[in-house]
């Protein structure tokens, strides 16, 4: 769902209006996107901010955030347990095994923030195990894990299929309206192609604005995913910011520093393309 505005911008011709010929490429995740950006195989990539900021801090690549992408909303990112589990709140996650799609990234960090708000400190190595999102239903059903951090559409699907319960919606409290992902390019590409980047920003912003209409997003999701229209209609959908805001994104970098995912403070303002807000 996160890239629905991009799909809409392509379908509506917003990029063509800006003189851009956009070719979309689907990747397994941010881990695959970062080396492709570095190698020049991608000009711009969608990805989560934790991966981007971590790569920047480690010197893996020098990047710029060119557009915001997706922000959490109620029930888009949740912690779920089997329906007969004794776990009721994040306070009960102490010494439990929690499934996330990737450790030391946004999923485990959101769970750790929720647990800390409930007086519990979780450890990346002791408390978390990795499973792809499509496998979350199976590991919860078979009780291979005690809990799982799940995103849409999997949260809705797992709830309906096995009756798994949400014990905490991470789009509340200290992680309400959480900046999840955006679009990045290398500093070199931005420097060499300022007009292209500006055109990309304008076109995508139109798609992001169009996505404020839930009906438009629901109608778009089945066109580029395997999610049926009837399922898309019932999904919990986040929000799609139309501008970049350093203060908002700094929340992510500060949390990464607090939870040991950054060794030093990171000033997000330095990563935002000049002229963006």
Automatic annotation (TrEMBL):
Pfam families: NMT1. Its main location: periplasm. PANTHER family: ALIPHATIC SULFONATES-BINDING PROTEIN-RELATED, TAURINE-BINDING PERIPLASMIC PROTEIN. It is found in: Periplasm. It comes from Thermocatellispora tengchongensis. Residues 3-213 form the SsuA/THI5-like domain. This is NitT/TauT family transport system substrate-binding protein. Keywords: Signal. One of its GO terms (cellular component) is periplasmic space.
């Amino acid at each position: 769902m996160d890239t629905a505005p991009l799909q809409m911008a392509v379908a509506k011709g917003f990029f063509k209006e800006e003189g851009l010929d956009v070719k979309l490429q689907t990747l397994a995740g941010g881990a695959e996107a970062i080396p492709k950006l570095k190698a020049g195989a991608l000009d711009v990539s969608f990805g989560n901010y934790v991966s981007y900021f971590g790569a920047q801090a480690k010197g893996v690549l020098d990047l710029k955030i060119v557009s915001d992408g997706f922000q959490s909303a109620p029930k888009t990112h949740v912690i779920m347990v089997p329906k007969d589990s004794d776990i009721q709140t994040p306070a009960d996650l102490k010494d439990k095994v929690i499934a996330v799609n990737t450790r030391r990234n946004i999923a485990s960090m959101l769970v750790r923030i929720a647990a800390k708000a409930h007086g519990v400190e979780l450890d990346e190595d002791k408390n978390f195990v990795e499973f792809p999102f499509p496998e979350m239903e199976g590991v919860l059903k078979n009780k291979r894990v005690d809990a799982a951090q799940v995103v849409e559409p999997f949260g809705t699907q797992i709830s309906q299929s096995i009756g798994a319960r949400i014990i905490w919606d991470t789009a509340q409290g200290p992680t309400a309206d959480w900046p999840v992902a955006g679009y990045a390019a290398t500093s070199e590409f931005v420097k060499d192609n300022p007009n292209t980047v500006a055109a990309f920003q304008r076109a995508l912003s139109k798609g992001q604005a169009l996505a404020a209409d839930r009906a438009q997003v629901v109608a778009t999701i089945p066109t580029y995913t395997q999610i049926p229209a009837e399922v898309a209609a019932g999904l919990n959908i986040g929000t799609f910011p139309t501008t970049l805001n350093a203060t908002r994104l700094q929340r992510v970098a500060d949390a990464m520093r607090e939870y040991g995912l950054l060794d030093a403070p990171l000033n997000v303002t330095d990563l935002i393309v000049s002229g963006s807000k």
